[in-house]
Structure formats: C-alpha cells, structure tokens
Amino acid sequence: MDRVDELYDRFSRGGIRKRRLARAFHSVTWFGLLAGLSGLKRAIDFLLALVLILLLSPVLLILAIRGFRKTPRIGRWCEPFDQLRGIPVLFNVLKGDMAFVGPRAVAPGELSPREREARKRYSARPGLVCLWFIRKRANIAYSAEAASDSEYVESQSVRGDFGIALRAIPALLYGEGVAVTRDTVSILGLSIHNITMTDALEWIAARIQAPSPSQICFLNADCANLSYRDTEYKAVLNEAELVLADGIGLKLAGKLLASEIRQNVNGTDMFPRLCETLAGAAAGIYLLGARPGVADAVGKWIAEHYPGVVISGCRDGYFSAGDEPAVIAQIAQSGAAVLLVAFGAPRQDIWIRRNLHATGVKVAMGVGGLFDFYSGRIPRAPVWMREIGMEWFYRFIQEPRRMWRRYLVGNAVFLWRVMRERRGARRAAAGGAA
Q1: Is residue 404 one of the residues assigned to a domain?
Q2: Contact 238/227 with Cβ under 8 angstroms?
Q3: Is 287 helix (H, G, I), strand (E, B) or coil?
Q4: Which of 120, 101, 90 shows the shortest CA–CA distance to 160?
C-alpha cells in the first residue's frame, strides 16, 4: 500500500500539484525569511553607519574637501555601484550599497553570476568584512571564496554577523594571509616547505606513485621547542621530504622573521581532504597509534564518510619493543600506500624515519592527536575559534593539567626564541652592510 501511495504522489496529477505547491510554499517562506532578516540587518547597518559618520564628521569633511576616491564594484542582485575608499565607505553602508558584514565586494567581471557557486553571494549586500577575509588572514582558507560566500548566505543571521565582526578584529592583527613569499623558509634552524593545502595534497598524490618512500612532518611551536633540545628530532625534521607549517604560532613567527607562511597546513584539516584524494584509488591507508580502539574508530569514520577509501589496517600504539618487528611486518603485508602514525612528537617522526623503508608504504606522516579528534574521543575547537587562531586555547581548557606547560610556557618560549633569532638576523644584516 505504501508503494502505491508513493507512485500516486510521484506520477498522478494530484501528487504533482501537491509537490509544486510545496515547492512554491518553501520558496515563498525562504524569501520571506530572507527579506525579514535583511530588513533587520539593514536597520542595524544604517543606524551604526549613521552614528559613526556623525562621530567621524570632522575627518570626513577634510576627506570630502580633498575628494573621495571611488572604485567600481558589483553589489546585491549584480547592481553596479562606486565603493568609496577608506573611512568614507561608511556612506556606502548608509546608502545600502554595502553592509558591515557580507561577501567581499568584487570588481565588475571578477565573479560571473552565471557561475553556480557565485550565484548565492549576489543575494546579499557585499560587506566590509566576510568569512573569506577572516579565514584568509588566519591561513585556513582551504576552500574557494565562493564556497565561503555560500556558507555565509545559507546561515546568515544578525547574531552570526556580530560574531564575524568580532572575529575580524584579531584577523586584522594577523595581517595578510597567503603572501608572495619564498617556497622554503627557515625558522629556528628548521627548513619549512612553504606551500598550501592544495599543493600538499597534490604532492602526496604524486609521491604515492613514486618508487621511493617519503616522510611528511608537521611543524608547530611545540615541535620547534622539542627540536631545540633534541638533536635527533631536529635532524629528522630537516631530512624529511616535506615539512609543513602547522598552527598560528608558525604564522606569527614567519611574520616576525619576514618569511610569510602561506597557509596553516595541519594534519587535522588535511585528513578529510586526504581521504577525498584517496577515495576510489587503489592506494590504501594504514592507521597506527593512539589508545586501544581509537584507530578502529577512525577507520569507521573513514568508512562512513569516504567509503571509497581502502582501509588497509588499524593498530593502536601500545606495543612493546619486542612486538615492533611484527607490527612493521603487518603494515608491509597490508599493502598500504599511506601510513598515519599517532604516537605524539617527537616519537612518531623518529619512528617513521627509522622504519619508513621497512613498512613498504609510499608516504608516512606523524599526525599527533588527529585520531582522538576523528574517533570522537576529544572534540575539536569550533570553527570560529580556529578562525581567530585560538584552537590551542580550546585544547588547553580541555586538559589544563596536561597541556599548561606546552601552551602557556611553551608558546612564550617559542616566541622568545623567534625574537632572539630576529635580533640576530638584524645584527648580521647590519654587520654585513657595515
């Protein structure tokens, strides 16, 4: 009977009419909500812009005498307008050409409304700040700008705009995001491959087909501190085929040393993208490390979200030195192409360097606490905390007794060492000039 009702709803005139009415009601409801939200948001933007214009009227008067500079832009519903440069942009907000928060105001012809992903952005007024602006400056803009715009339009609210405006404050302090900089930078004597997330995934895909194995290391502030007093670990980092900058600490260090870091390429954000890269390929993945049952839970997460990925095997990290040969043999026999090791730094990276060839894999990387996040054992920081570079603080408040030394003391020591390196570089440059 259920099958008959389903066929009736799908193919009968009454069923087709009912579906059309449902779609029409959904569309009207959506546009009604959008209009209501737009009206409230517009009122807030208008009042705030008016207050700021009155407060800054002496400055605006001087700028008006000198003449406002204008730049052609495309606004809501693809209407062209002239965006005023600097503080006078408040008049654009007052007039309704722009909002304080919204997609970036683009130049004519930059993003075609015919492109599917770009279409949604034109249903909202362009803003002075946007999600893309924040993520780019925090070095976590892994997706295209249009995807961030679609995310904003689909979930926009007055409360959400307020949160974005607050997150824009630390984003301004971080400076520009992806910069024109060197492909390899040195921080505290460690050589870092300065590439983006997309570059790293393409590198892995190519190395899977290479005849010789490769090691990837993720370098954060804590790893740099550990390598400072562990010569073997430092040698492993400098010998690895790929070393990637991980975390806001490396971004700040790069800025202080005039060696901008292009992107925060950390293992936790890379993992789902790596699974997407491996989906449908013959290259299997082996998960090694963490507490008993955690690696198996990560394997289940992969099977649920990326069923096309071959899971070659899972093994916890609690084995003795006597069991190690058997574990290595198990990995080699699994035929895995990619090995993720979650022993924690520096042990995981040193272990990989010693046993890389024996495992038979093509690419191996130490991933720290990644398994805990994707197994569900430890929740990861919400996106908004990652966007302001405070993921480390979220991790600290989860386990303060275990993490206080690493984050509160370690981060300060790391920045002190970076500042000392900066002073040394300046003295050397001054001596060379003399």
Answers
A1: no
A2: no
A3: strand
A4: 101
| 227 contacts 237 by C-beta, under 8 angstroms | yes
Nearest of 104, 245, 298, 267 to residue 201 by alpha carbon:
267
- Quote the domain boundaries for residue 218: 184-387
pLDDT tens, residue by residue, 30-89: 444 444 446 788 889 999 999 999 999 999 999 999 899 999 999 998 899 999 999 999
What's 349's domain CATH number?
A: 3.40.50
Give a yes or no: residue 131 inside a domain. yes
Q: Return the number of other C-beta atoms located less than 10 Å from residue 94's C-beta.
A: 17
Q: Provide the mean pLDDT of the chain.
A: 89
Alpha-helical segments (H) within 360-407: 370-375, 383-387, 391-398, 400-404
What's 292-343 look like in SS3? CCHHHHHHHHHHHHCCCCEEEEEECCCCCCCCHHHHHHHHHHHCCCEEEEEC
As a whole number of angstroms, the distance between CA 142 and CA 191 comes to: 23
- Number of Cα atoms under 13 Å in the Cβ half of residue 418: 25
Residues 114 and 39 in one domain: yes
| d(C-alpha 75, C-alpha 105), whole Å | 7
Long-range contacts made by residues 85-91, C-beta under 8 angstroms, separation at least 24?
87/56, 87/59, 87/60, 87/63, 88/60, 88/63, 88/64, 89/128, 90/49, 90/52, 90/53, 90/56, 90/60, 91/49, 91/53
Q: What is the pLDDT of residue 178?
A: 52
CA distance 235 to 47: 59
Domain annotation covers residue 414: no
